[in-house]
Design brief:
Elements (H helix, E strand, L loop, with lengths): L6 E5 L2 H15 L5 E6 L15 H9 L3 H8 L2 E3 L1 E5 L7 E5 L12 H10 L11 H8 L1 E2 L16 E3 L2 H14 L3 E4 L2 E6 L6 E6 L4 E3 L2 E4 L16 E3 L8 E7 L9 E6 L2 E7 L4 E7 L6 H9 L11 E4 L3 E3 L3 E2 L2 E3 L5 E2 L7 H14 L8 H27 L7 H8 L4 H13 L12 H10 L16 H19 L3 E2 H8 L6
Parallel strand pairs: 1-2, 1-12, 2-8, 4-15, 12-21
Antiparallel strand pairs: 3-7, 4-5, 6-23, 9-10, 10-11, 13-19, 14-17, 14-18, 15-16, 16-17, 19-22, 20-21
Helix pairs in contact: 1-6, 1-8, 8-9
Length: 502
């Protein structure tokens, strides 16, 4: 008879480790389940990920965390989306919002009417019909109203926060729920001789920690999932060329934008992430097309504000672990794979992986069917995100460097080629199961990169052009009117959730 899991050992801290600890501690309330997290203060975390997507808001709510308290504790700001600069061509920009565009008319998708208008010579920018985009252009922010004055004013938001402060906040949260914390290095992983499952880990000094379920949050090295269990890694660098980054922090200058900036550069792109107390900067690039010294020089010449630290170099192989769950080991964060921070999915993937683990939480049997399903779901999710990231590079029309020319000429996965072909044919958005990015996100890319559909839904012809023009004008005016009633992002923070200076 299978027995309940009684001991969980998390190897590694950082954002992934403490998100796991907090979620599992909440899950374990009322159960006979102990949780121990082992991390070494001698080993630093990557900790450059400071931008999120909206599901982090629900993650914190599920834990019962007070949002204002969290924002103050992590020096956070709000994020309405990502502004892409110089991606389509140099001198262009577009916005990827956490919101839909417009409203259906007679049950026909809104973007089909925009496509129809543009096919008839009108110059329609779909961003004018998204409240998050309108707010972002003004530099304003307001939290979504539970009963918005118009369906047009419904949108989501995420955060920019200090990842190390977020991990510290969750560490305190977890400790209050009984999570044991050991500061030590893991010297050895011990396997059971009969089935190859992990039996225990031996710490420096000889202490042995046994467990039933092990969570690997040890970063790129994959101490458990790879070094001990030899799970294997699937390399996606044939599509995602960027494999290096230099990151640094600067003093904040000027007002705080309610969005992340992503600026295309010679062999990759630069991020700009505004926090309350500083700005996060980084240049992510392909070592195949640019050397480290040139990358550092590009970053340093394109930041504002006084440098708070020396640029730090990171290297990675884009791809995923072949299994996120192998035997009694579950990998999270960088131990499970890494795509790149282009759409701020790293923390989200930790969150969705934890949700899958809780949905299929094992007993002592570790049923292979459960493990296979979690791996299938996670792998599909990663593939969907991979395709969305590749889309950014493939659709660019930059030709000023070999990097961008290679991006445009590369072969892409069939799954992505099918999506692009259907949109270009008739404006149809293909969504698969377990998509992290919904129709509006794909639309923002197609329009931002100026990919026009050859046809539109013929049902969009049922509305006379003059009537359609009136409806669109009314939508734009409504959004502009509502946005004008909001305050600047900077004032919103000062009024509601200003953090204490560090």
């Amino acid at each position: 008879m299978p027995q309940p899991i009684k001991n969980i050992v998390i190897v590694g801290g950082g954002t992934a480790g403490w998100m796991a600890a907090a979620s599992l501690a909440k899950y374990s309330l009322g159960k006979n389940l102990s949780i121990c997290l082992i991390e070494s203060s001698q080993i630093g975390t990557v900790g450059v990920g400071e931008a999120t997507i909206p599901n982090i808001v629900e993650f914190n709510r599920t834990l019962g965390i007070d949002e204002r308290e969290l924002i103050k504790a992590t020096q956070a700001t709000f994020k309405l989306g990502i502004q892409f600069e110089d991606w389509y061509q140099q001198g262009t920009r577009f916005f990827h919002p956490f919101a839909d565009f417009g409203l259906k008319i007679d049950q026909v998708e809104f973007h089909q009417y925009i496509n129809r208008m543009n096919a008839n010579g009108y110059q329609q920018n779909i961003e004018d019909y998204c409240f998050a985009s309108v707010l972002a252009k003004k530099g304003n922010f307001a939290q979504p109203h539970p009963n918005p004055p118009s369906p047009l004013a419904d949108y989501s938001y995420a955060y920019h926060f200090d990842a190390s402060l977020y991990a510290k906040y969750l560490q305190n949260f977890s400790a209050n729920l009984g999570v044991q914390h050991i500061d030590a290095k893991v010297e050895q992983v011990n396997l059971q001789p009969d089935n190859g499952f992990i039996k225990s880990v031996t710490l420096e000094g000889g202490q042995e920690i046994t467990g039933d379920l092990f969570i690997d949050c040890s970063g790129f090295q994959g101490l458990l999932i790879e070094q001990a269990l030899h799970t294997g890694y699937e390399d996606w660098s044939q599509w995602l060329f960027c494999d290096s980054a230099v990151a640094m922090q600067t003093e904040r200058t000027g007002p705080v934008n309610p969005f992340t900036r992503s600026i295309a550069r010679e062999a990759g792109w630069q991020w700009n992430i505004p926090l309350q107390h500083r700005t996060g900067n980084g240049y992510i690039y392909s070592s195949q097309f640019q050397d480290d010294a040139a990358a550092k020089k590009i970053l340093l010449s394109n930041v504002t504000g006084k440098a708070l630290n020396e640029p730090r170099k990171l290297s990675f192989t884009p791809g995923r672990r072949k299994q996120i769950w192998n035997k009694n080991c579950f990998a999270l964060g960088l131990a499970s794979g890494f795509l790149e921070p282009l759409e701020s999915t790293s923390i989200s993937l930790v969150q969705t992986a934890i949700a899958k683990l809780l949905s299929f939480f094992p007993d002592s049997e570790f049923n292979p069917a459960d493990i296979a399903e979690v791996n299938r779901l996670h792998n599909r999710e990663m593939e969907n995100i991979r395709d969305f990231l590749i889309l950014h590079y493939k659709l660019s029309q930059r030709s000023d460097s070999e990097f961008w020319r290679q991006c445009q000429s590369m072969e892409i996965p069939d799954s992505l080629a099918h999506k692009i072909a259907l949109y270009e044919s008739r404006g149809h958005i293909v969504l698969h199961d377990n998509e992290s990015f919904q129709a509006a996100s794909w639309l923002s890319m197609y329009h931002g990169f100026q990919r026009q559909a050859r046809r539109y839904d013929p049902r969009a012809d049922n509305v006379a052009l003059v009537v359609l023009e009136q409806k669109l004008t009314q939508m734009r005016n409504n959004l502009e009117s509502i946005a004008n009633q909001t305050m600047s992002h900077q004032k919103f923070i000062q009024t509601h959730c200003q953090a204490e200076p560090l």
